Amino acid sequence: DLDKTRRVTLDAKLYKKLQNLAIHHDHGTPDEVQVFDYIYGVLHCPAYRETYAEFLKIDFPYIPWPASPTEFWDVSDKGNQLRRLHLMDPAAIGATPDPFKGEGDSIVGKPRFEGGKVWINETQYFDAAPEVAWGFYIGGYQPAQKWLKDRKGCALSFDDMKHYQRVLKILSETNRIMQTITMTL
Q1: What pLDDT sits at residue 60?
Q2: pLDDT at 59
């Protein structure tokens, strides 16, 4: 019996101002999802994160107005890509090229990154793993490492392996997309 109607929870005046600032001759006026994607993109912009690092630790994030409609739509598009990745949309993730190799019982021991491989134990690994995914931080932790450490002593199933391959791809793609987000701050 949940009402699944999508609602804008932003202040109506601020939402309308943002829509007006983003009106573009090709894209038109953004809807609530495109506004959400803009905010999501802003929060992943490296320059924004650096500029407001201290503020982000102690308060709600400040979201800057777009400098132009073109900037809005560029940041919104990249925010859309990130949102779809983070929701693990298969179409957004695509192929996961980090094959699981080696002989053994697939039990996670002491995970490590070495030689382009994420080793789960002494004989088994995810090959051709992106180092950026292994070292990527979200907040105060590294999800590619934490996911394996949380499974220490457990055998990875085939589904676990496929999931972890997606995690590596998502983290790598997140880093790649973030590096393309530019804004006037």
Answers
A1: 86
A2: 86
